[in-house]
Design brief:
heterodimer, A: mainly alpha, B: mainly alpha
């Protein structure tokens, strides 16, 4: 019971902190021009900052390096995802929502493929 | 080539779009935490670079551009897709910065985690900024 309450409290803190930090990065991206520069903030470490800060505060710094090791694979997958999304938008008449949705399996495949390669 | 600040673009967003971003950001952070709890920090770490925000921002950029063109009497479909594609280019460059962020967290002293996060954020900004500068130089040289 205590563990469930702890998990719920942690999730609420995560939700509020995550929402706030992501909104701040998104606002910065909104006011910057040109658009390609503003796009950098679509890959800002907002979720990572909140998650790693909470992991440090709650669980100590041991898990942080494990998180960071896997994050390298996730970031490489994000590069592939963004590349595919850009090409789908340029070469087809798909909407942004559909293009990103179609590119999502690319992120999953690259992220878990690299993860499996690094952790055989 | 020069980066500038344009506060007028804030007027393009509706109030509910800010709420959606907040909810999506919160949900992505909670999901990352739950994945870490269920399958361990190694799998959870992958989701620190999950493209939830890029999906939202590309859609919003497209909607804003299309709305602006429609107000000028045009369809704006092509322009909206081009703007979203440019947003995705920026995210691709930013993801190199995200790799730098992760590498710095991985390599710095675990006994000073807060310093490590501050240095990693700086590494993200530098790497992403440099990649964008190189991208712009290459585009300019090609045209």
């Amino acid at each position: 019971m205590v563990r469930v309450v702890g998990l719920m409290t942690e999730s609420v803190i995560r939700f509020i902190a995550g929402g706030a930090v992501v909104s701040v990065f998104a606002l910065i991206g909104d006011i910057l021009r040109p658009k390609s520069f503003a796009g950098l903030f679509g890959a800002a470490p907002s979720v990572a900052l909140v998650s790693l800060a909470l992991a440090t505060s709650i669980h100590g710094s041991d898990s942080v390096s494990i998180h960071a090791g896997s994050m390298l694979s996730g970031a490489a997958a994000l590069l592939a995802f963004s590349f595919v999304t850009c090409h789908l938008l340029k070469r087809t008449r798909l909407s942004a929502a559909l293009a990103t949705l179609l590119a999502l399996p690319v992120w999953l495949a690259v992220a878990f493929g690299l993860y499996a390669a690094v952790n055989p | 080539m020069i980066v500038r600040v344009s506060f007028s673009s804030l007027g393009d967003s509706r109030w509910y779009e800010y709420v959606v971003r907040f909810l999506l950001g919160g949900a992505a952070t909670v999901m990352t935490g739950l994945v870490g709890q269920l399958w361990g920090p190694a799998v959870g770490g992958l989701f620190l670079a999950f493209p939830a925000m890029l999906c939202a921002s590309a859609t919003l950029v497209e909607t804003h551009e299309r709305r602006r063109k429609k107000e000028a009497g045009l369809t704006g479909d092509r322009r909206g897709a081009d703007a979203a594609a440019l947003d995705a280019v920026g995210a691709a460059l930013g993801s190199v910065g995200l790799m730098a962020f992760a590498a710095v967290v991985l390599r710095t002293d675990a006994s000073a985690p807060w310093t490590s996060l501050a240095l990693a954020s700086l590494a993200w900004a530098l790497a992403a900024g440099c990649c964008w500068w190189i991208y712009k130089r290459l585009r300019k040289a090609r045209s």
